[in-house]
């Protein structure tokens, strides 16, 4: 089954060119199936890139998904065309009286700031509090995961001595978890961040489970025992060239930036990166949608 998105969303053409089954609003209206309602709070400045990456992962499942894109109203992106935001994004005031099967909160390039220094922090806190009663299962990504762990569970983010930047090996700590059903014992995921959360803080927090980590990158996947909240520290949705673009952007700015670890062949940024995380990233999103949203959400969202 396909993902259902607005007919004119730019991601549609990209996904269809990759032979991904995308259903337009018109066609979906003629199917007697209740789609999963998934809300994506996109905090990234490059919104079109991020929405396309996530929609790509959500689309490769046997489920029909109704996606809505959410932006903050307290901070408006300066890197995305205003017409695009007006056409495809909604605000919290427009959805706060509704309920959703699933929600994704993306990362944001603000990890070096204290949470309360972020312009939209009060609004994000309001949205995260709302998600506990209006969303069946919420998936937090990278900085969004750190923000969620702090807001919901009081876990502090910690500064790293240098940027964690590259593709790292991870291990599944709980093979019985449906989130990692079909995963190899060892899998790879991209990271690009200056902060982390400590494993001992996660393990000391009631109702949280650490389900995957990395000897180099640290904590990777955390969930609540009731599976209503997931926190993923990396970027399983990244494109093959995302880290390369970030590297060359910083080089062009004259910034001190290391070559992404375990990414370019022979550690040579002039070569084409090797993709080792695509299948694991796809499976993570698919498993979350299937086992923690579709299989357990009520048919009537009024019963959430």
Give an overview of the whole structure.
The chain has 10 helices and 12 strands. The model has no long low-confidence stretch (mean pLDDT 91). The two termini are 24 Å apart. By secondary structure, the protein is an alpha/beta fold. The protein folds into 2 domains: 3-239 and 277-303, Rossmann fold; 241-274, no CATH class.
Question: Can you lay out the helices and strands and say which pair or pack?
Answer:
Blueprint: E1 3-4, H1 10-17, E2 22-23, H2 25-28, E3 36-41, H3 47-59, E4 65-70, H4 82-88, E5 89-90, H5 92-95, E6 100-105, H6 121-134, E7 135-141, H7 143-153, E8 158-172, E9 186-196, H8 199-203, E10 208-214, E11 218-224, E12 229-232, H9 242-252, H10 278-294
Parallel strand pairs: 1-2, 1-4, 3-4, 3-6, 4-5, 6-7, 7-12
Antiparallel strand pairs: 8-9, 8-10, 10-11, 11-12
Approximate helicity band = 25-40%
Task: Report the biggest beta sheet as strand number plus sense, adding barrel if it closes.
Answer: 12 strands, mixed
Distance between the termini: 24 Å
Tell me the number of helical segments per DSSP (H or I, 4 or more residues long). Answer: 10
Give the structural class. Answer: alpha/beta
- The tally of structural domains comes to 2
């Amino acid at each position: 089954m396909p993902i259902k998105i607005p007919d004119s969303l730019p991601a549609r053409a990209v996904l269809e060119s990759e032979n991904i089954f995308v259903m337009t609003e018109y066609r979906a209206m003629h199917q007697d199936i209740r789609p999963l309602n998934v809300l994506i709070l996109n905090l990234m400045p490059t919104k079109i890139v991020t929405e396309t990456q996530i929609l790509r992962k959500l689309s490769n499942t046997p489920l029909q998904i109704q996606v809505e894109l959410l932006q903050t109203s307290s901070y408006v992106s300066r890197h995305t065309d205003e017409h695009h935001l007006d056409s495809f994004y909604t605000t919290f005031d427009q959805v706060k009286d509704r309920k959703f099967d699933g929600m994704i909160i993306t990362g944001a390039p603000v990890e070096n700031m204290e949470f309360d220094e972020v312009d939209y922090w009060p609004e994000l806190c309001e949205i995260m509090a709302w998600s506990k009663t209006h969303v069946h299962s919420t998936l937090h990504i990278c900085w969004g995961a750190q923000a969620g762990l702090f807001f919901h569970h009081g876990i502090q983010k910690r500064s790293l001595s240098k940027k964690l930047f590259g593709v790292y090996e991870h291990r599944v700590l709980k093979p019985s978890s449906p989130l990692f059903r079909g995963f190899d014992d060892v899998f790879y995921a991209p990271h690009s961040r200056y902060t982390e959360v400590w494993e001992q803080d996660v393990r000391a927090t009631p109702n949280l489970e650490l389900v995957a980590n990395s000897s180099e990158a640290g904590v990777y996947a955390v969930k609540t025992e009731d599976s209503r909240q997931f926190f993923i520290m990396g970027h399983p949705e990244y494109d093959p060239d995302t880290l390369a673009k970030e590297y060359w952007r910083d080089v062009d700015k004259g910034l001190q930036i290391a070559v992404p670890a375990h990414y370019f062949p022979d550690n040579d940024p002039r070569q084409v990166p090797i993709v080792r995380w695509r299948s694991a990233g796809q499976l993570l999103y698919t498993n979350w949608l299937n086992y923690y949203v579709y299989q357990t959400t009520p048919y009537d969202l009024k019963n959430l």
